[in-house]
Amino acid sequence: MNEAEADPTATPARGVAIPEAGGDPTPDVMAEVERAFEEIEVDSPLVGIIMGSPNDKPKMQPAGKALHEAGISYEVRVMSAHRTPDVVADYCKNAQMRGLKAIIAGAGMSAALPGVAAAYSSLPVIGVPILGKSLNGLDSLLTIAQMPPGVPVACMAVDGAKNAGLFAARIIELAQSS
Ligand code: RP5
What we know:
Blueprint lengths: L26 H10 L10 E5 L5 H13 L4 E5 L6 H11 L6 E7 L4 H8 L4 E6 L7 H8 L8 E2 L5 H17 L1
Parallel strand pairs: 1-2, 1-3, 3-4, 4-5
5-O-phosphono-beta-D-ribofuranose binds next to strand 3.
């Protein structure tokens, strides 16, 4: 069906309408996303994107891009469940009170960050396993997926930051529509 034949009254698919990221992102979008990844202060962010290392930033930028395209404000912070556990605990304990609605947590290797975030916050936590130098990312994938009962984490694909952004956008759209 071409565009002219499409039913304009059709109900759109569930979720926030996000333009497909075919082709290269526009320079404007990427400039905004890169700026956010400098960890600037953001007014009233709805999503916290956290990651275990500054080296994870390129892998996590698609989450920021998806949120940016959905018009959802987010902030970016680097913190590690192993290297700076107190920072993670403080951030996650205060996240809901600060107005965040979801946390996207990316980490590689023994990727404890999403699970620790879920231990300290009742917000939905979306984990992104990041491909490291060994085991084809299975280490981080299994660490994030195999959470014990009672501590839920949504696990995306290895290097699946784009879907993490889209998933967070759906959560927020649902909360805003109810
Ligand atoms: C994890 O360890 C980070 O999320 C990163 O993916 C991995 C390696 O960290 P760096 O040595 O690159 O800082 O905590």
